[in-house]
Amino acid sequence: MAPIIIKNIRQDFGDFNAVKESSFTIEDGEFFMLLGPSGCGKTTTLRMIAGLELPTSGEIFLDGEEISQKPPSQRDIAFVFQMFALYPHMNVRKNLSYPLVSQGMQRAQVKAKVDEVAQILGIHDILNRPVGGLSGGDRQRVALGRAIVRDPKAFMMDEPLGALDAEFREHMAEELRALHDRMNATTVYVTHDQLEAMQMGDKIVVMNNAVVEQFGTPQEIYDKPATMFVADFIGSPSMNFLRFEGAVPEGARSVDLNGHMLGIPRQMQGASGSLVFGVRPEHVTLNDSGTYRGEVLATEYLGTTQIITLATPNGELKARIDSAQVARVGETVGLGFNADAITLFDESNGGALRSELNDEVLAHG
Amino acid sequence: MSSFSVTEPSRRAKWFAGTLVILYALITMVPLAWIMLTGFKSPSDAISYPPKVFFEPTLEGYVNLFTTRTRQTPEFLAANPPENWYEEIVREYDMVIVGPSKFGERFLNSVIIGFGSTFLSIFLGTLSAYAFSRFKIPLADDLLFFILSTRMMPPIAVAIPIFLMYRQLGLSDTHLGMILLYTGVNISLAVWLLKGFIDEIPLEYEEAALIDGYTRFQAFYKVVLPQAATGIASTAIFCLIFAWNEYAFAVLLTSGTAQTAPPFIPTIIGVGGLDWPAVAAGATIFLLPVMIFTILLRKHLLRGITFGAVRK
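Structure tokens for the assembled complex are given below, as produced in the milestone run.
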């Protein structure tokens, strides 16, 4: 197991720039998520680490060694494909043995190793079956087994749960996470599902349009988004954006939204022009004494909480409130915001303004 | 399946389909059966009218096919009684066997040239189809079209230039010349068919093999080739059938050493005209290799080996 350092890697396919100079570090033993919408370059990044694509420029360090131009067979990295890619002309045991045979391992040793892995994954009873007739979950386990059987330095997983039924996904996600914790293997995992990323990842890189938008722990990314894209992409419902024209000086503790002073974390960066007041739905409260008001457009009952959609002078807003609270469609209600959890964005570049809340995160992102 | 199933064909549909298949089989098998039967007839039975379906079978045709014979004087015949069953057969015509015919040689030529060119076509075809399928080749589409265009006229249209070229190069009437010629004709078919099959094989298998520590070439022959077995088998059958049955070039370019069976068989002359039973016997034996080859590869033709391994 080993850390992976990505330095300024770039990938061009002809005129198309799939990944722009990107850098991040994957610590030893981390479960690392590459998250983003389809076409954002996350799979290309993963394939560059594995060696299935060679970067146009930049460096990749695995365990201190620069590997960016090495063939995959010399990298000692395992890869779990979205479609599993089990060798269809071999049975389960042969599929699992294949990476070991290529290393010239003794037959008895191969058998012992395969049996051990099959035991871990609970697939010892299907070892002699052809892969064609296996269920999705079993194929997934065989694909994982083929990856872990040779104790590689790191695992790459390309949406490994994407091909499974929704019901089974959650179960498999838990199994995967448990397997990771047990082996403590450096794992890079590509997904477009933000819930999956939050649920499983130690760290997340959010990519969009070939660039890294933010890199941090799930909590940092959720609470302290570095860009409007991240704030919008993560969370369901996503962060509310109340747009306004104005100026925020450095050191400000409040912001003027249509004449209403709303509290914000102490700003460490001033800005003016088109600004955005970003607040997560759970940081909005219904508060009769609030001067900032909105009209209730719709309510969605979710059991313990409800989502209320409101029309405000600065745009639509969603609030997640206790389902015991009463909100009627058509009513105008006063709103309160949790001042410590607000992020201001500069709409012209989509970036978050630095404040006491996110300073530390933005400094390394 | 219950009798109300939507997807399961009804009994009547099955009967109808079965009858149709059997009828079709009968129609296509009659000429074959005719040739095979004629091979076991005596010359007079073979040309009798109305044709005989029931007759006394004889191996005369086969003996004539494989031997050369001469007529002898009664004294010679009396002095040398027949030593075995095939001698006895020819004695009925006052003849003795003086040696083997050229059929064996010609048949062997067919085997060498047919299988040789099939192997070469498949070998070159698989490699180039793989390259066209997997690598970024400049002008790939134009090259593929060029390869296909070699089949846009009947090969025999260029018979004269090839004849002159082969004479100049010393390839006339050689095994190598015929193998190269048939490979040249078959290669475009092989590249196109195999490219289609290889395109169908998901790239992930090779990538998985690369990740598992194999080189590109190992990934090709350990993972791609087994997957392409179905395609290779059917392409090989097509190539073999063409090379095996080819007549026009064989007549034109071969006369002795490298002559194949198709131009040879009709030249088998018997007593007083064509020896039809011998010709039929030759045709029957000639059919066997392609039949056996097809039966051997049938498993690959029918089996969809990639079924279910990748979810699409």
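The two ends of chain A are 25 Å apart (CA to CA). The longest helix of chain A spans residues 166-183. Further analysis is deferred to the final report.
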